Amino acid sequence: MKRTVFRLFCLIAFFMFIFVGYVSVIKLRSLGLVVQYHIEEFVRAGKPLFIQVQPKCKPVKKIVYMKTHRTGSTTLAAILDRFAYNNQLTLPIYQGVTDHVPFHRSMVANQGKLDMLTSHTLYNKSEMDIAFPGAVYITMAREPSSYFESVFTYFGMAKRIYEPDPKMAIDDFLHEPSRYLTYSRSPFNRVWNGQMQEFGLKKHEFNDDKRVQQKIKELDSEFDLVLITEYFDESMILLKDFLCWNFEDFVYMSINVRSERLILSKDSKRKIRSLSKADVAFYDHFNKTFWDKIHKKGKKFQKDLSEFKRIKEEYLALCLANETTIKLHRNNVSINMNKLQAGLSADEAQAFCGNLKKNDIEWSAIINGRMLKNGLVSYESLKKIEENSKKSKTAKQSAHNPVVRRLAIPKLTD
């Protein structure tokens, strides 16, 4: 009798174990556990490498991305544009948005309802709100000395100093910056608090600490998320959580990245930070808020970061060739070019890898073409935008001509 009861008890316990296990699996799936498929099957079917249960939150599809120069912005813009394409979203006609005057609603006139702004432009919150009502605001910040080196090299500042060695040119510039920044339209102004300039801080306000802090406070209240260039993958996890997108939406190939970077001395970095105090204050503030957000997420953030890196590495291993090609950009800057695996078929490359390789300009052309085809923008409007773009480029070129008004440049101590 006792043996029979014992067997019955074991049988009941066994079925309870199976039931609890089944419920646990369902629970894990509801929390977004990813299930991996074989890479070969994914490629042939043109399906995601990982299947994710859609999270309970609603994906954000209305975004203003304040794209600043030399902050990893092209890579992030391509990520956002790829999502826009996959979700039938709209972008402004690329040529219509300029980066030498503050954004204005006229830049996107006669283009219907627009979902995202991912083009270079100067910050103008009130006009952006009108053109993109209800949008969230995101941007990136870069450590000032790293930003300075990137801008100085990429935009060919050395040749303007007539110094073939970029590092020597930087030393020459930092020795006497007032010599090159005297005029309000000097091309060297990009390296002088260049990040804060794009957010609307005026040059005569650079040395006004109170005004700089006021501007940073304004930006803190107006932007939903400020990411950090030096921690790009960490930034993608924060953005993933904020936008309620999937890991696969943020897989990327780095775009427009130089193959070589100058190593600045400690003295050069000190001088750069002394020159661009507004950018330093801007970066320090948002670097702190960035890490505060990460720390609040606890251990889950590190788990998500590890998972994202694993997924990204598997995608890149599938798509990218081992060899790296170099392309000479303007000003003789060497840019790393992504090269796809030779064994991929046309269908495979088009299904995913080719899309992963596209930059933001290519995505804009594809999306704008779809808008034109669907009647969301007319050929007449497109022609007018192209004409205005040509006029804008002419005005931008003339803007580099020196004018008489001089600026107060801080003196740097050696």
Compose a concise summary of this entry:
The protein is of the alpha/beta class and 414 residues long. It has helices at residues 2-30, 39-45, 73-86, 125-131, 144-154, 157-161, 166-175, 178-181, 194-198, 209-222, 232-243, 266-275, 277-297, 299-319, 346-357, 360-373, 379-398, and strands at 35-36, 50-51, 63-66, 116-117, 136-141, 225-228, 325-328, 334-337. A 4-stranded parallel sheet has the order 4-3-5-6. Strands 1-2 form a two-stranded antiparallel sheet.
Task: Say what the CATH topology is.
Answer: Rossmann fold
How many distinct domains?
1
Order of helices and strands: HEHEEHEHEHHHHHHEHHHHEEHHH
- Which assembly state applies to the chains in this document? single chain
Query: For the residues shown, what is the average pLDDT?
Result: 81
Describe the strand arrangement of the main beta sheet, using strand numbers: 4-3-5-6
Unreliable segments of 5+ consecutive residues: 22-47, 397-414
CATH class: Alpha Beta
User: How many helices in DSSP terms?
Assistant: 17
Q: Could you say which structural class the secondary elements and strand pairing correspond to?
A: alpha/beta
> Main β-sheet: number of strands, strand sense, barrel status?
4 strands, parallel
Ends distance: 96 Å
Q: What Rg is obtained from the alpha carbons, in whole angstroms?
A: 25 Å
* Beta-strand residue fraction: 5-15%
Helical content, roughly?
A: 40-55%
Q: Based on Cα principal axes, name the global outline.
A: globular
In the CATH classification, which architecture applies?
3-Layer(aba) Sandwich
The overall strand count is: 8
